Amino acid sequence: MTPETDASHRVDRLWPAPALDLSLDEAMADFVVPSSRDGRPSVAINMVTSIDGRAQLDGTAEGLGSRADRHLMRRYRATFDAVATGGGTLRAAGAWLRVGDDLAARRRAGGRAPNPIGVVIAGGDPVPLGARWFSGDEPRLLIVGRGNPIGEAPAGTELLRAPDERPAPGWVLDCLAERGIGSLLLEGGPHLNAAFLAAGLIDELFWTVAPQLHGTDALPMIAPIPGITASPRIGRLVSVLRHEDELFLRYRFDR
Prior knowledge:
The protein is an alpha/beta fold. It is 20% helix and 25% strand. It has six helices and eleven strands. A hairpin with a 3-residue loop joins strand 1 and strand 2. It is globular and about 55 Å long.
């Protein structure tokens, strides 16, 4: 079987500077991660939803996006210092956060570790320590709430216990900055996204709109957290790519 490459997935750039039939390499040539702000790591969300805004299909995002979307997801991951997911996503999907051999080689050639640092952020619920997320050789951080029952993390994973029942996004970013991490990509779930939004700590959004209508009560990209209120943020459209009937949108949220 021929391995997937950026040239395997053709996209049209609809905005800015429209151009047809580009490879992902061409479409992503000018991509850079958002710069850090006020001494904290920059934060972006990468999510896929249906047209009607559902971020889950049978409890996970599996089956929402195309192979091109999954390849673009790895491209985004490869540019960030760390990639994070919530404890619920780890329990539901295993949270495989690596970039693949080709992009790992590119990172290595640029003097970086082959994969970004993996981060899981959990509150008080048990963490599935047997998930394959714990099996990689990249550095990993497991950040849990004060009352989480975990005693110690598996080998290769640093355990951080927050002073509160739910790790506060600002406190999380402080911990990452202390470890030299300048950029963080959030891959859900919807409650983790909501916590960072409520804290005013979202700088960019990478949003894949899958050509599906669900009409279900599955979680959206941002799921409200009881007792936590988020103020609306106004985004600025940065780019629009199209792969067949799928859209890849990028928004920036300025201060």
